[in-house]
Amino acid sequence: MVHIFIVLTLLIKGFCSFENPGAFLPFEYNEPFSLPVKKTPSLYKGCDNTTKFIVGIISHPSEFDFRNFIRNNWGAPAYRNCRTTKLIFLMGNSDDLEMDKQVEQEANRYSDVLLLDYYESYNLVARKVFGFFRYVNQSCPNVKCVLKGDSDTVINLTGMEKLCEIMPDNNLTITGYYGWDKPLRDLQSKWYTPYFVYPIKTWPSLVSGFSYLLSGYGIVPRLMNTLETKTSFFTSENFRRLWEDILFTGIVRDLSEIPLVHNTGFHWGNKPDYWWHEGKRIILALETRTDCTESCSTEYAWNLVQANRRENNFSTFSSYECHLQTLREVPDFRNSIGSSLVRSQARNL
Ligand SMILES: *[C@@H]1O[C@H](CO)[C@@H](O)[C@H](O)[C@H]1NC(C)=O
Ligand SMILES: *[C@@H]1O[C@H](CO)[C@@H](O)[C@H](O)[C@H]1NC(C)=O
Ligand SMILES: *[C@@H]1O[C@H](CO)[C@@H](O)[C@H](O)[C@H]1NC(C)=O
Ligand SMILES: *[C@@H]1O[C@H](CO)[C@@H](O)[C@H](O)[C@H]1NC(C)=O
Ligand SMILES: *[C@@H]1O[C@H](CO)[C@@H](O)[C@H](O)[C@H]1NC(C)=O
User: Where in the sequence is the signal peptide annotated (predicted)?
Assistant: First the structure.
């Protein structure tokens, strides 16, 4: 009798939950989750205990040009002799062995790649961001700010450092382009989400994934703890297939009771918008692909950011941009400007 009941229940459940899984799995898959690391960024390029700000850029193995563009342009200050802001790239395996070999060479050459051992696809990006946060949780004990960016986003690193400085040290927040959205139930959509994966009508408030800033000491350990204790991330493959911004800036952030801050300085579609700060308009991040009909290149976005750099007398990269450093660590800065000015500037940032 009990058996018949179970069979019937399963059958009914089976019929009723017949829903196209899209890019999700039709049935839950509960194998233990593991995400081995193939290569960790070296201490010099990655975090050490003096790192205050770490930037992690999502990049597909094929995007060699994007990565070099970032290394040579907006990301360059993080490669200077500046030890408190760092930039690393986050990658997995492609399905092309030759390309993977090149990526390993690149990782050895630049020492700025966190290489994770999984096969990349659009629905698996959340695990890459998890790999980043796990790295920060383990290796960046003193970071105040963690920025996640996409490879096609141009970021004003100086502006982000300034934003980081004015955010409270101990109140945790996530700042970005605010979006409050519903799961899409249209199978054709890139963001199709079946009801059996997420039955609720709306996502928690979230910010768009092209670039967002986590701020406050201890924010990543807090998110990691929530992930372990309050979500099914480690047991549900379908949960891990949710989009990274929804998962981390929406669901996990909400469960961690961390507020969101909308900042118009983050913008997509290569349309500049500004963060107004102390009477100045500041572009923080420009995404260059979505909804963009003209001038959609990262070069174009970089020109916008650069033009303003000139106005601000940052003609070349300099230790000006390392202002999160203590004076002791920036001898050049002190020598050229004078320590009192440096100190008062640092306070006003
Ligand atoms: C930071 O790390 C270095 C090298 O690992 C160590 O010598 C130093 O004591 C550490 N500093 C602090 C403040 O933990
Ligand atoms: C984060 O760090 C804490 C403290 O070291 C550790 O207990 C925890 O397992 C880490 N979480 C992850 C996901 O690595
Ligand atoms: C980038 O940020 C710096 C520092 O806040 C600011 O002076 C500069 O104007 C910003 N650049 C743009 C293009 O907004
Ligand atoms: C930090 O959060 C507390 C509680 O929400 C609030 O009272 C306080 O004003 C916040 N501090 C800052 C610097 O934002
Ligand atoms: C940049 O330098 C010029 C010439 O020294 C100066 O007149 C101008 O005020 C400076 N601009 C800023 C934003 O500091």
Answer: 1-17
- Give the model's pLDDT for residue 335: 26
pTM: 0.83
User: Which pLDDT score, from 0 to 100, does residue 342 have?
Assistant: 24
Side-chain half-sphere exposure of 138, counting CA atoms within 13 A:
10
- For residues 342 and 108, give the distance between their C-alpha atoms in angstroms, rounded to a whole number: 36
User: What Å distances lie between residue 345 and 79, 292, 330, 335, 341, CA to CA?
Assistant: 23, 37, 14, 15, 6
Q: Where are the domains of the chain?
A: 31-316, 318-349
Q: Which pLDDT does position 326 carry in this prediction?
A: 32
Strands 266-267 and 285-287, sheet pairing:
parallel
Probe residue for ligand 3, chosen from 156, 311, 313, 345 as the CB with the greatest number of ligand atoms within 8 Å: 156
How far apart are the C-alpha atoms of 268 and 94, rounded to whole Å? 26
pLDDT of residue 30: 75
Fold held by 31-316: Spore Coat Polysaccharide Biosynthesis Protein SpsA; Chain A (3.90.550)
Probe ligand 2: pick from 138, 139, 234, max atoms within 8 Å of CB?
138
With a 6 Å cutoff on the Cβ, whether 313 touches ligand 5 is yes
The bridge status of strand 85-93 relative to strand 53-58 is parallel
Q: Which residues of the chain have pLDDT under 50?
A: 1-2, 7-12, 14, 313-319, 321-349
